[in-house]
Amino acid sequence: MDTDYNLNCLLGSMEIQPRSTLQQDKDQVHQDRSIKENEETLEWEKYVEEVQDIIGYKFKDPSLLYQAFTHSFSQSEKFESYERLEYIGDSVLNLLIAKKHYFLHPDLPPGKLTRLRATNVDTEKLARVAVKYDFHKYLRHNKPLLKGQVEEFKDATLEYPLHSTGLIDPPKVLADVVESLIGAIYIDCNFSMDTTWQVVEGLLQPLITLANLETHPVTKFYEVCQKYGWSVKLIDTWEETGEMEFFVDGKFAGKGKFSGKKLIALNRAARNAYCEIVTNLSVETTSDDSACNETQN
Question: Name one GO cellular component term (predicted).
């Protein structure tokens, strides 16, 4: 008796929603989703026109362009991420740059050709291309911190107009977008290397040439120490302080700090130490030693 009474009370207190109301709710959700999808479609159609105007290439298949700007964290239901396009774009870009330098410098040995190519296709170089053309604003992603990272990178590039040679930290996603865009162009133009290069060459300007190619700071530092027979000691306190320190012949030469990546802290320490040597000792300098006059944080 008590059980039946309690059950009747429970059922009586529950408001059973009519079937028609449930259907109306479903219809409203479907309508809201359709409106959102239409708004996104119109926005992307605008983006397509803008990107095509920037790169000077009109896509036969705009879905490739859409995919090129879709990050793996975007949770897009329509398109897969740019990762596969990035893969092929990376290979195409390396071949295009290698081909250009091979014929431009017929007497250049493979080692220097490799350095020249690497500097023109590395993460920093391509990230600079992305921010130059604001490609990040077209990226479909779910990375709340990206905007701040892009702004921080843009500010850092002001100290190094062409390339920092490993002294700043570019967001990898920016370079990925450029590579995926190159991959999309390559596929869309039916795998024409000539057509792809016409677009890519313009995007990569200014290219780094032999005249402005800088030696990596760690390489430059160790080379000058070896030349003069100086002993080098590295003090690694990066885990605790984010810093690396160099001592030359037992004397402090320079330090670098960057808590984000150990390699960048090392590069900054080497640059700092090298500039200290150039400033205070009579050593033979190179054409890019003017950078030692810049203030390094």
Answer: cytoplasm
Amino acid at residue number 55: I
Q: Which residue has the tokens 């930290």?
A: 169
Helix (H, G, I), strand (E, B) or coil at 101: helix
- How far is the C-alpha of 254 from the C-alpha of 31, rounded, in Å? 63
Spatial strand order of the sheet with 251-257 comes to 232-237, 243-248, 251-257
pLDDT tens, position by position, for the chain (297 residues)? 555 555 555 445 545 555 566 666 565 555 545 444 455 666 778 899 999 999 999 999 999 999 999 987 655 556 689 999 999 999 999 999 999 999 999 999 999 999 999 999 999 999 999 999 999 999 987 777 888 999 999 999 999 999 999 999 999 999 999 999 999 999 999 999 999 999 999 999 999 999 999 999 999 999 999 999 999 999 999 999 999 999 999 999 999 999 999 999 999 999 999 999 988 876 666 656 666 765 444
Q: Where is 244: in which H helix or E strand?
A: strand 243-248
Give yes or no for a contact between 187 and 64, defined as CB atoms under 8 angstroms apart: yes
- Local structure of residue 281 (DSSP, 8 states): S
Q: Which amino acid is at 240?
A: E
| Rounded Cα distance, 207 and 128, in Å | 11
| Cβ–Cβ < 8 Å for 220, 234 | no
* Residue 138 DSSP symbol: G
CA angle 187, 189, 193 (to 5 degrees): 85
- Pairwise CA distance, residues 141 & 76, whole Å: 9
Q: Please give the C-alpha separations between residue 1 and each of 6, 83, 183, in angstroms, as whole numbers.
A: 9, 66, 74
Residues with Cβ < 8 Å from 223, sequence gap 6 or more? 215
Pairing state of beta strands 232-237 and 243-248?
Answer: antiparallel
Which of these, 214, 190, 173, 158, lies nearest to 73 by C-alpha position? 173
